[in-house]
Amino acid sequence: MNTQGDPAEKSMAADEAVSPASHYTPRHAKRKFGMAILGLFVLAYGWSELWPPLSLVLAGHQAWGEATRVIKTKPGLPDQILTDDLEVNAAEETHDRSYIFWNEFKFTTADNQQHIVRFAIGSQLKPLFPLLDEDGLPTTVRIYYDPNDAGKICIPIVFSTWFAPGLITFMGVICFLCGCMILYHAHHKIELT
Questions:
Q1: How far apart are CA 162 and CA 38, in angstroms?
Q2: What residue segments make up the domains of the chain, in order of their start?
Q3: DSSP readout, 112-144?
Q4: Residue 108: which residues within 8 A CB-CB, separation 6 or more?
Q5: How many whole angstroms separate alpha carbon 151 and alpha carbon 44?
């Protein structure tokens, strides 16, 4: 009669005693929930910046805006009004980024009212648009404006209109989705191989 037992069974029992747990639970649900909430806040902020120009493009009226002048500003100094490209070229800054150049556009609304509006996005070093195009004619761009307040305009071809708000919104979506995904798995056991 064999009282020592099967050597294979002893080996398996020894392996089970030494092997780590076969499941892992990630936990930390509060932190993962916080990440999802942070993602929602970032998403909400990005969308609040992205929605105004987007709503103008989707529901606003269109007009052709003519560049009329450039305003050069710097905190603490009086505004400099530039009305032709020679003045603009002479006023360009090659190094000082504390100056901001603002384009102003003249356009006619659907009810035949003329408006001159400063575009809300400025540029450092030089203006976004010259006053005259390559043919010597006034620079014109497509403008979307709010029919109830023609002072609110959007120029969709300006890259910075979309870049920063779009990037913030995208990062908020990614943060929220990642937070939700890891929160979902926070209390689910993961089988270890």
A1: 22
A2: 25-58+157-193, 61-146
A3: S-EEEEE-S--BSSS-SS-SB-TTSSBPEEEEE
A4: 63, 114, 115
A5: 25
For residue 153, give the nearest of 165, 163, 141 by alpha carbon: 141
The pLDDT of residue 18 = 46
d(C-alpha 24, C-alpha 102), whole Å: 58
**Cα radius of gyration rounded to whole Å, the chain:** 31
In angstroms, the CA 188 to CA 193 distance is 16
Along the chain (193 residues), what's the average pLDDT of each consecutive run of 10 residues? 53 49 69 89 96 95 95 94 92 89 95 93 92 91 94 94 95 93 76 70
Contacts of 21 (CB under 8 A, 6+ apart): 192
Cα distances (Å, whole numbers) of residue 114 to 40, 118, 155, 169, 189: 41, 14, 17, 35, 67
**Helix (H) or strand (E) segment spanning residue 149:** strand 149-154
